[in-house]
Amino acid sequence: MVWLLDRSEVLVQPSTTRRRMSPIGLSVTRSPRLSQTRMEPSPSKSGRYPVHRNMMSNDEKPAGPPPSGRPRSVPVRSALSAALAGCVVALALPWSHVAIADAAPDSAIRYVALGDSRATGSPHDPLSIRDGCFRTSDAYPQIVADTLGAASYVSRACAGAKTENITNTPQFTITGAQPPQIGALQPDTTLVTVSIGGNDIAWSSLVEPCYTFVPGLDANCRSDATTARRMNDALTVLGPKVSATLAAITGKSPAATVLVVGHGGIFGDRGCWPYIPTSDADAAFVVQFFVKMNDVLADAARRNGAYFVDVAAAAVGHDACAGSDRRWFEGLVPRSFTMPLHPTHEGLRAMASLVVAARP
């Protein structure tokens, strides 16, 4: 059983950024700059590895330990899907919780979380399905709210959301229509996090040509001109969408600090079938795709006075091929109670630390 997520492609190259270290040693990127190059199919060079809700009602609630949520994932080639179907087993294993001290309530922080399944959490609470968005209590925005002691916190993040579902288009879920997420913003909102873009470009389908049916094979997607073109085209379209979304957010909450949480981290510099069923060279090629996607997101953030949180850079060595003690993301076949191609519980906590550190 393999899940579906996002799609896109573009013309950019790693940006020049300033980084500082978070309390747990993770780097945070501020107002990055973007230069442009086209993503071309390359030989088998590995490339650099930049790697990368709580069941609440839709009404704003005081921050505190709320309930649940979860993400949506990616389709794989049908043959591979069939081959892996019997392998995908959700293991309800106990998580090793890292203590994160919650702050005393801060009346100055009024926090709204927007976005897709990366901001809804891991599916540990079966009741998270009741609002159709799969928000859970271990979502990174919930951890951020608790850590900062936010006076108020509301999450409108919803699995499967696209940029249009934030700004002006209802999102239809298994429990009915969800109103545009931007409705949760108020003039006095002081903090907004945004995790978006993956579903707009259906990124998972863009990297499908890199998957192999049998361990040890090399799909060589890195040399396929069609794959490179589709990626470039998708990212070209994504930039204006994200920029327009951020402009709408700042228009509703002009005093808010807006943090755009980056993509990436799932793929590293090697494959590990069936979790990441690619050759090492193709895995590195996919990493470069996410570098370019993050450049697009970072540029949109810079253009709209927002901050970019570089999850991929902090996640080097924590990809889906890493051991259980270091893994922040699951691959196509999850080895923990986490959606395929989404952050693990520990990954969500790391993302929360990055967000907290990114606040000016």
UniProtKB/TrEMBL annotation:
<feature type="active site" description="Nucleophile">
    <location>
        <position position="117"/>
    </location>
</feature>
<dbReference type="InterPro" id="IPR036514">
    <property type="entry name" value="SGNH_hydro_sf"/>
</dbReference>
<protein>
    <submittedName>
        <fullName>Possible secreted hydrolase</fullName>
    </submittedName>
</protein>
<feature type="active site">
    <location>
        <position position="342"/>
    </location>
</feature>
<feature type="disulfide bond">
    <location>
        <begin position="133"/>
        <end position="158"/>
    </location>
</feature>
<dbReference type="GO" id="GO:0016788">
    <property type="term" value="F:hydrolase activity, acting on ester bonds"/>
</dbReference>
<feature type="domain" description="SGNH hydrolase-type esterase">
    <location>
        <begin position="113"/>
        <end position="349"/>
    </location>
</feature>
<feature type="compositionally biased region" description="Polar residues">
    <location>
        <begin position="28"/>
        <end position="45"/>
    </location>
</feature>
<feature type="disulfide bond">
    <location>
        <begin position="272"/>
        <end position="321"/>
    </location>
</feature>
<feature type="region of interest" description="Disordered">
    <location>
        <begin position="15"/>
        <end position="74"/>
    </location>
</feature>
<keyword id="KW-0378">Hydrolase</keyword>
<dbReference type="Pfam" id="PF13472">
    <property type="entry name" value="Lipase_GDSL_2"/>
</dbReference>
<dbReference type="GO" id="GO:0006629">
    <property type="term" value="P:lipid metabolic process"/>
</dbReference>
<keyword id="KW-1015">Disulfide bond</keyword>
<dbReference type="InterPro" id="IPR013830">
    <property type="entry name" value="SGNH_hydro"/>
</dbReference>
<dbReference type="InterPro" id="IPR037460">
    <property type="entry name" value="SEST-like"/>
</dbReference>
<feature type="disulfide bond">
    <location>
        <begin position="210"/>
        <end position="221"/>
    </location>
</feature>
